[in-house]
Amino acid sequence: QVQLVESGGGVVQAGDSLRLSCAASGLTFDRYIMAWFRQAPGKEREFVAADSWISWDGTRTTYQDSVKGRFTISRDNDKNTVYLQMNSLQLEDTAVYYCAAANSLYLSSSLKPDYWGQGTQVTVSS
Questions:
Q1: Among 2-6, 32-36, 107-111, which is the least confidently predicted range?
Q2: N or C: which end of the chain has fewer CB within 10 A?
Q3: Which of 54-68, 79-93, 102-116 tops mean pLDDT?
Q4: Spatial distance between the Cα atoms of 42 and 126, rounded to a whole number of angstroms
Q5: 113 backbone dihedrals φ, ψ, rounded to 5°
Q6: Closest of 7, 33, 5, 32 to residue 18, by C-alpha
Q7: For the chain, what is the largest distance between any 2 Cα atoms, rounded to a whole number of angstroms?
């Protein structure tokens, strides 16, 4: 049984940093693209960032434009964990953040995950 368990969410002020973690079990972690999505109130869930286990062109990560330069996705295959370091948080970053795993060879912002976590709330206040 695959489980993705997020942690690290909370309430922070604009400009602060936060690091989300997602511990995975029940899957061959180092053969999955790991990703973060988010869903703000009243909006559809959207892609945030992804980290691939394989690179075809030297690129192993991809980001939504609005978080480029502020967020960093990384993974620790020894710990079966993926992270999302979020710096310079903005009010618009308030959302539930979901960890996801995709059994795919290709890194894309339109990837379709096979598994999802339950989500962790991130609230950015002014």
A1: 107-111
A2: N
A3: 79-93
A4: 20
A5: -65, 150
A6: 7
A7: 41
Q: Is the pLDDT of residue 64 over 80?
A: yes
- 64 exposed, middle or buried (CB, 10 Å; 0-12, 13-18, 19+)? middle
Pairing mode, strands 120-125 and 95-102? antiparallel
Nearest to 74 by CA among 101, 49, 104: 49
Q: Which of 55, 46, 96 is nearest to 75 (CA)?
A: 55
DSSP symbol at 105: S
* Mean pLDDT along residues 57-76: 94
- DSSP-assigned beta bridge partners for residue 24: 4
